């Protein structure tokens, strides 16, 4: 659960905020004044822009880089000792080669993960801004249209 929420925190918060705004403003639009849905659209646009402005992925990348710089050697040494228990002792040259290859592969794997996360966030940003802009422009019209079908 933590791995999902931790990685997806920005979009979960953005979608939660947009949903609350749409529901609340939708109810106000239905029962008070149709213009409230336009205002809800403006809030959704703001949420989309804030999501675009968040630098969450950059913060995570910086934390990972710091972690790899400070703790990588001790973690890699522990992993290699575990492997050596199952196989044979490794020479210092072999250990150094394996550690270097592992570090390159770790950076490559995380770069792919971060790139996928960036694309996903960009898609949510676009959808929020497009949807919010639509509601901002046509929200009152939609409410009036829906109410006219009931009468």
Helix/strand layout:
Elements: H1 2-31, H2 35-53, H3 56-86, H4 92-150
Helix pairs in contact: 1-2, 1-4, 2-4, 3-4
Helix-and-strand structural type:
mainly alpha
Query: Order of SSEs, N→C?
Result: HHHH
Mean pLDDT metric: 88
Beta strand count: 0
Number of helices: 4
Helix content: over 70%
Describe the sheet with the most strands. Answer: none
Percent strand equals under 5%
What form results from the Cα inertia axes?
rod-shaped
Report the uncertain regions: none
Distance between the termini: 47 Å
Backbone CA Rg? 25 Å
How many structural units, i.e. domains? 1
Walk me through what this model shows.
It is rod-shaped, with a radius of gyration of 25 Å. Helix 1 runs antiparallel to helix 2 and helix 2 runs antiparallel to helix 4. The longest helix has 59 residues. The chain is mostly helical. The chain is built from four helices and no strands. The model has no long low-confidence stretch (mean pLDDT 88). Helix content is 92%, strand content 0%. The chain starts with a helix and ends with a helix. It has one domain.
Give descriptors for this structure:
rod-shaped, mainly alpha
Summarize the structure.
With 151 residues, the chain is mainly alpha-helical. The protein has helices spanning 2-31, 35-53, 56-86, 92-150.
